[in-house]
Amino acid sequence: MPVPWEALIPFALVTAMFGAAGTLLGASTRGQNEGKPPRYNLDRWEHMMMTRDQRLTGTKRTQSTETVAPPEFATNSVWHTQQTS
């Protein structure tokens, strides 16, 4: 059975486009996560720790090794922005 050589060019183009799209999506995801893989199946504790890291360091993927929080940590809480009934 002969091989339809004309079909290989579109097949190669489609394969290259899917590969390029997957590579660019992966690079975009890692770029948004500071070069680290994305997080999956996060529970409330992990969300709370990511919020704390955001308040301490300015980014949710970086942790601080300082033993004392900066002075801004006392005033940048989400509780100060919510209305009380």
Q: Can you walk through the features of this model?
A:
- This is Small secreted protein.
- The longest helix is centred in the N-terminal third of the chain and has 25 residues, at 8-32.
- The chain is rod-shaped.
- Helix content is 46%, strand content 0%.
- The chain has 85 residues and is mostly helical.
- The mean pLDDT is 84.
Characteristics:
0% strand; 85 residues; single chain; rod-shaped; mainly alpha
Provide a short characterization of the protein structure.
With 85 residues, this protein is mainly α.
> Using DSSP, what is the number of strands?
0
Average pLDDT for all residues: 84
Low-confidence stretches: none
- Tell me the β content: under 5%
Task: Give the secondary structure arrangement, pairings included.
Elements: H1 8-32, H2 44-57
